[in-house]
Write a structure and sequence with these properties.
Blueprint lengths: L2 H9 L1 H10 L4 H10 L4 H20 L3 H10 L2
Helix pairs in contact: 1-4, 3-4, 3-5, 4-5
């Protein structure tokens, strides 16, 4: 997966919701796995940027639990 593909995936919010809700261990474990599975630095950077944007959006709409789940996955 190259950076442009990562950015396209990031724009597909329906895909993010379906993947996050289908991941049994929880959002924080999914975020951790998502970042650690990327081999290239550029891919990690693109995914991290997307995940942080999702966390900020959660915070801005009042979904503090979702934002904190994402932050916990970044620990």
């Amino acid at each position: 997966m190259d950076v442009s593909e990562s950015r396209e995936i990031c724009k597909d919010s329906a895909m993010w919701k379906s993947v996050a809700s289908a991941y049994p261990p929880g959002v924080s474990a999914w975020v951790t796995e998502l970042l650690l599975c990327q081999m290239a630095h550029e891919e990690r950077k693109a995914i991290l940027s997307c995940v942080l944007r999702i966390a900020l959006t959660c915070w801005n709409i009042g979904n503090f639990n979702g934002a904190m789940e994402i932050v916990a996955g970044l620990k």
